[in-house]
Amino acid sequence: MSGWKNEAPVIFGEVLFDRFPDGSVVLGGAPFNVAWNLRALGLDPLLVSRVGRDELGDRILSAMEDWGLARTGIQQDPQHPTGTVEVSVTDGEPVFDIAAGRAYDFISAAELPTGTAQGLLYHGSLALRTEASRSALDRLREDVAGPVLMDVNLRKPWWSRGLVESLMDVATWVKLNENELAALVPE
User: Fold this and answer.
1) With b meaning 16 or more CB within 10 Å and e meaning fewer, what string describes 68-94?
2) In principle, which of 19, 38, 127, 153 could form an S-S bond with 45, CB 3.0–4.6 Å?
């Protein structure tokens, strides 16, 4: 792992659109946000995700091209739509209604870019709610030689303690907020 700091980070997970009550639609998903922020800092991350062959998927690919993000890790799904989340606010806290059966739920191990990467591997937990995407991440872990940063995103009903703990066990670092910490390590 000696040279990992100079290598391109590999970012794995969801790309989606957040839809807000005021009608605004914002491109996001924690992995996507990490990738485009790293690009803004001058790095060349490889974002590995899946989008639908639909208007929203085309918008994502266009935005990536505009920002200079490589699209080689983006799979296009002819059967499942691009991810969406309905965002509302209750008692001052955001509430996320995350659509199921979206393209990023079906990231394919067979369609992953080839070649062993030496950089950091970043992944969240939301995109791992299906076996297909978990298998793709497992395969990617075999190919990436650098450390692993896991970003815990506990969104009901899309997580289980056992899965999150098993992912944390094999991560080098784990990022979580106070609420996620309290949910995983109750007093």
Assistant:
1) ebbeebbbbbeebbbbbbebeeeeeee
2) 38
Which string of DSSP letters, residue by residue, matches 78-116? Answer: SSSPPEEEEEEEETTEEEEEEPSS-GGGG--GGGSPPS-
User: Cis peptide before 157, with omega less than 30 degrees from 0?
Assistant: yes
- Alpha-carbon distances, residue 80 vs 83, 84, 92 (angstroms): 9, 12, 33
Structure pTM?
0.88
- Give the Cα-Cα-Cα angle 152, 70, 77 (nearest 5 degrees): 70
What percentage of the chain exceeds 90 in pLDDT? Answer: 59
How crowded is residue 96: how many other Cβ atoms within 10 Å of its Cβ? 14
Distance CA 123, CA 110 (A): 18
What are the φ/ψ torsions at residue 139 (nearest 5 degrees)? -65, -40
Q: What is the pLDDT of residues 82-92, one digit of tens each?
A: 999 999 988 88
Do β-strands 46-52 and 10-12 pair in parallel, antiparallel, or remain unpaired?
parallel
